[in-house]
Design goal:
Elements lengths: L24 H5 L3 H7 L14 E4 L8 E2 L24 H14 L3 E6 L9 H14 L4 E6 L4 H10 L4 E5 L5 H7 L2 E4 L2 E4 H21 L3 E8 L8 H10 L4 E6 L9 H4 L7 H12 L16 E2 L11 H5 L5 H37 L9 E5 L16 E7 L4 E8 L7 H4 L2 H11 L5 E3 L5 H9 L3 E3 L7 H14 L8 H5 L1
Parallel strand pairs: 1-3, 3-4, 4-5, 5-8, 8-9, 11-14, 14-15
Antiparallel strand pairs: 1-10, 2-6, 6-7, 11-12, 12-13
């Protein structure tokens, strides 16, 4: 089931395994028609859409009005893939020009967001100047912004006036005592405020802003950074409260605490959660809230499909040389979007019919085998096209006799500025293996002898025999082979070791 390549708009449009995360296929089908239309081609708000539609962030917001202990902004960095990092800061005019160039080259692009590298609303002139011009010249694009929420109540009316339909607020706590451990200071009313007082102000503004956005019908996604020992036991309450106030989606993300990034938490040894801890918390929150599990924790200048970074193709120097027909490009985007959505609608209808048949069969039979968790190296999520050693992230699947569910994505251990700069070469593979410890299979296009052996030693079976095949079909084939060879009679290796 290939996903159209962003570099080839004529590629086949076809489906995906149904997901159970984010706004999954089932959840979208349960939405009212208006809301479903607003999320069906938004790659962050729909787990299904992120396999078909692209987004870009324009880095027009360098300043920030709070300090988070997990953040260290970098303005000219091409080596790190995390929030708060960009290769170049843009003026509003440059951002508009870059957006129109990218949207002409990538017709799957449906969303333009402002997500830093600081805070969108700490840079209101640049942010709203960008939205104002794009709403005129590319009205088919969805406009989004991300904010820490401190200035949100002041700008809600302006956000609504520019038809910014999706807003992400980062809310890590609703308890000021916990907040004081995350935020050393905020800048408020022309002064720096610290400690509990700073957190009280920030939390109050976030909650007020959330309520105001919901009153205006704007979809709100809440991002929360899971910090073990600080807010991990608290985030379920956060999820319950923001849902009660009308937030549409909750995205619990793992703390990135690599010392090489220079953040306070990274330098002081604060660890991030294990994949198992993150999933357990997401599962706990899912009882109260729609959860996003396909987040890639993108850069503030990300371009392309989620998980892709095509920013190097669209530097200011390169876009100056591009000839762009804005109206023709918009026509191509609208036509492609309509075709994709029509095909997805047909596939949903077919799946519903198949599901009804499967439910009926399940009343008389029990599916054989047990679930198998697999990691996949894929640049798009649809095709197994990535060398194990080149993967920036791995898609995690849970495969059963009846389904292939996407559980989320996990970042591969990455170098910062190259192995020599960071001295991390010896640890990179070990960190990747630790992040995949609950998987039994690694599907990739190719893999070297050394990592092959270490994966096997860790109880993860490498499999490069399905290179360039559809992810879901390959996963089903591997699962069936494991069933027929008797490998599913026992518990997974990581459970036997526990």
């Amino acid at each position: 089931m290939p996903t159209p390549s962003t570099s080839n708009p004529t590629a086949p449009i076809s489906g995906c395994a149904s997901g159970r995360c984010g706004s999954s296929t089932q959840q979208i089908d349960e939405l009212d028609a208006s809301t479903a239309q607003r999320v069906q081609d938004h790659p962050c708000y729909s787990e299904e859409a992120h396999k078909y539609f692209a987004r870009m962030h324009v880095a027009v917001a360098p300043a920030c009005n709070i300090q988070c202990n997990y953040c260290n902004r970098k303005y000219d960095c091409s080596n790190e893939s995390r929030p708060g990092v960009v290769s170049e800061v843009l003026t509003a005019a440059q951002a508009v020009k870059k957006t129109l160039a990218v949207a002409a080259a990538i017709p799957q692009m449906s969303v333009l967001g402002i997500a830093g590298p600081g805070d969108a609303l700490a840079n209101p002139e640049r942010t709203f100047a960008t939205f104002a011009e794009l709403s005129e010249r590319a009205p088919d694009l969805k406009l989004c912004l991300s904010t820490n929420g401190l200035m949100l109540p002041r700008y809600v009316d302006q956000i609504a006036a520019y038809h910014v339909d999706h807003v992400t607020i980062t809310i890590n706590c609703i308890d000021p005592e916990i907040g004081a451990q995350i935020y050393p200071w905020i800048f408020w009313n022309h002064r720096r405020v610290t400690g509990r007082e700073a957190s009280e102000i920030l939390i109050s503004q976030q909650q007020k802003g959330l309520e105001m956005l919901v009153e205006r019908g704007i979809l709100v996604k809440v991002n929360s950074v899971m910090i073990p020992g600080i807010n991990d036991q608290h985030l379920k309450e956060v999820s319950r409260v923001v849902r009660a106030k009308g937030a549409f989606l909750h995205n619990v993300m793992p703390l990135i605490s690599d010392p090489a990034h220079g953040t306070h938490f990274g330098l002081t040894g604060q660890r991030g959660p294990t994949p198992q801890e993150l999933k357990a918390l997401q599962d706990d929150c899912a009882g109260d809230m729609n959860m996003m599990r396909h987040c890639q924790q993108c850069r503030a200048d990300a371009v392309g499909m989620l998980g892709e970074d095509r920013g190097a193709e669209f530097t200011l120097e390169k876009i100056e040389a591009m000839q762009i027909d804005e109206h023709a490009a918009m026509g191509r985007r609208i036509a492609l979007r309509a075709a994709i959505n029509a095909e997805l609608a047909e596939k949903r209808a077919a799946r519903h019919a198949a599901s009804a048949q499967v439910i009926a069969l399940h009343r008389a039979t029990v599916s054989p085998g047990r679930p198998v968790r697999m990691a996949v190296a894929s640049s798009t999520g649809a095709i197994i096209d990535t060398h194990f050693g080149h993967a920036k992230s791995f898609r995690i699947l849970e495969v059963t006799a009846d389904s292939v569910h996407t559980l989320g994505t996990r970042a591969a251990a990455q170098y910062c500025g190259g192995e020599a700069d960071c001295g991390e070469a010896d640890n990179t593979l070990a960190r990747t293996l630790a992040s995949l410890a609950d998987c039994e299979v690694m599907l990739c296009s190719r893999i070297g002898i050394e990592p092959w052996g270490k994966l096997e030693a860790a109880g993860i079976r490498p499999d490069g025999s399905h290179a360039m095949e559809d992810v879901a079909s390959a996963a089903r084939a591997v699962w069936q082979a494991m069933l027929e060879s008797g490998q599913l009679a026992n518990a997974p290796a990581h459970q036997r070791r526990a």
